[in-house]
Amino acid sequence: MPSGFLDHPLPLAFAHRGGAGHYPENSWKAFEHAVKLGYAYLETDAHATADGTVVAFHDKTLDRVTDSAGKISGLTAAQVAAARIDGTEPIPVLADLIMAWPDVRFNIDIKDDPAIGPLAEVLRATNCWDRVCLTSFSGRRLSAARRLLPRPVCTATTPAGIGAIRAGFPVKALAARFAALSVLCAQIPYSMATRQFIGRAHAAGLQVHAWTVNDPAVMASLLDLGVDGIMTDQTQTLRDLLATRGQWQPRFAG
Fold it and tell me: What integer is the mean pLDDT of 85-108?
């Protein structure tokens, strides 16, 4: 059974794409800002270049947020390195991010098939097994990643797992299935975070993390419902709200 990924005091605060409300998404500046605020958890995305370098970037192509264009999986690492997010910020290499803060945990969304093998190599090279949680909208991608890894890491539920929880499948059977696959959390759109869903997920042995929550009133209502973690672009807002509630657990606390 993995890992130490979820052993931080609850509730968990995740900087979504590094904290995209303050600096360009998935940029070094965004991640650095979140870490300075005390965030123990950074959420990001994984794509691989044509020559196998894994970068922290959300889209399949560079077009939307950079001054360059093209599909990442069809470009070399050098070509991707030349692009600038919002015209100013370099795209981080995932291994560099992981090694920059050895006490920080990374929630990594596998965005495309070409990233699966190179990501497994990154985890081996950085020896960060207890510091990562893998997630994907594709159950097939997560299964492929599990097969390539020499040991279990934390993973989040697939959409099928979320559907099983919502449909009322027997929680004992779900718990056994999730444990066998090292599924330790359900990460869901905040609109799905009902008291019933949270209760069933907890009964199946999972934490519940809600995304992407930027309104402080919604943050507070989710915490009152019992969610175990919140992903936000507005990292300062979430930190301040948790501090007001006596629930802020910064990375340097222990």
Answer: 98
Q: How confident is the model at residue 124 (pLDDT cuts 50, 70, 90)?
A: very high
Q: For residues 104 and 66, what is the distance between their CA atoms, to the nearest angstrom?
A: 26
Show the tokens assigned to 238. Answer: 């979430």
Over the stretch 146-157, which tens digit does the pLDDT of each residue have? Answer: 999 999 999 999
SS3 content of the chain, % helix, strand, coil (to 5): 45, 20, 35
- Three-class SS state of 190: helix
Strands 12-15 and 183-189: unpaired
Q: Which are the contacts of 66, defined by CB distance < 8 A and separation ≥ 6?
A: 83, 84, 85, 86, 87, 91
Q: Is the model's pLDDT at 254 over the cut of 90? A: no
CA 87, 18, 16, 26 torsion: positive or negative? positive
Whether pTM > 0.85 for this model: the answer is yes
Domain segments of the chain: what residues?
Answer: 12-60+93-246
Tokens of residue 198, six digits:
């949270």
* Catalytic residue of the set 8, 16, 22, 47: 16
C-alpha 238: how far from chain center? 16
For residue 85, pLDDT over 70 is answered with yes
Residue 54, exposed/middle/buried by CB under 10 A (0-12, 13-18, 19+)?
buried
**Can you identify the CATH homologous superfamily of domain 12-60+93-246?**
Phosphatidylinositol (PI) phosphodiesterase (3.20.20.190)
| Known catalytic residue at 202 | no
Q: Is 33 a catalytic residue?
A: no
Residue 201 is predicted with a pLDDT of: 98
Nearest CA to 206 out of 231, 230, 174, 232 is that of 174
Write down the catalytic residue from 8, 47, 58, 209: 58
